[in-house]
Amino acid sequence: MEPMLAPYKKLYRAIKGRSGRQEYWMFFLLFLALHIVPLILFFGMFGGISSLDPQNMAGAMAGLGIITMLLFIPLYAVLAVTYLAMAAVSIRRLHDIGITGWVYVALYVVLFIPFLNFLAMIVYLVLMALPGTAGPNKYGAPNDEDESAGAVFS
User: Fold this and answer.
1) Measured between alpha carbons, how far is 140 from 33 in angstroms, rounded to an integer?
2) Residue-range definition of the domain harbouring residue 26
3) HSE on the CB side for 55, CA within 13 Å?
4) What's the CA gap between 121 and 2, in Å, rounded?
5) Left (φ > 0), alpha (ψ -120 to 50) or beta: where does 72 sit?
6) What is the pLDDT of residue 16?
7) Please, what is the Cα angle at 91 between 89 and 94, to 5 degrees?
8) 79 vs 48, 74, 83, 115, CA distance in Å?
9) Total domain count for the chain?
10) Looking at residue 20, what DSSP letter applies?
11) How confident is the model at residue 154, as a pLDDT?
């Protein structure tokens, strides 16, 4: 659980240093969970509407919209911080393999270009899966917890 929450704790230094594969992939799992759970809740709420009386549908939809808005406002705040932490841990992960963080920015820009966005996502995932450089590089020394987890992800 500690590696999963580490990017939130490192937001004060955002993109300085290095992050190992364990820290990145554990946070990636949390990132996915924070996106899947709201979708399940959202579709669960709207799935129950189909059994309502069509005459009263407008009132039910208005009430459901208010409930949905109240539920999702705090979630959007959490997701905003999570996106910032995901960008930071991705840049630190690139630092771990000896690549500048500007590659992340370039890949993010390419995501908006049709047909190339799929290739950019594959390149991104491959880069995140590469092992870090052994020993210190120009972005600093590897973290101790990353070296101890190296046997798990090698």
Assistant:
1) 31
2) 2-153
3) 0
4) 27
5) alpha
6) 82
7) 110
8) 26, 9, 6, 27
9) 1
10) -
11) 47
Q: What is the pLDDT of residue 44?
A: 64
| Average confidence (pLDDT) over 36-43 | 73
In eight-state DSSP terms, residue 137 is B
Q: What is the DSSP string of 60-98?
A: HHHHHHHHHHHHHHHHHHHHHHHHHHHHHHHHHHHHHTT
Give yes or no for a contact between 146 and 23, defined as CB atoms under 8 angstroms apart: yes
- Which residue in this structure is represented by tokens 């208010």? 66
Would you say residue 152 has pLDDT above 70?
no
Residues in CB range of 145: below 8 A, 6 or more apart: 2, 3, 20, 22, 23
Position 62 scores a pLDDT of 56
Distance CA 132, CA 73 (A): 38
CA distances from 52 to 20, 71, 81, 91 (A): 50, 21, 37, 48
Listed in sequence order, the residues at least 6 apart from 19 whose beta carbon sits closer than 8 Å to its beta carbon are: 6, 7, 10, 89, 92, 93, 95, 96, 143, 146
Token pair of 6 as six digits: 């580490």
What does pLDDT average to over the chain?
Answer: 78
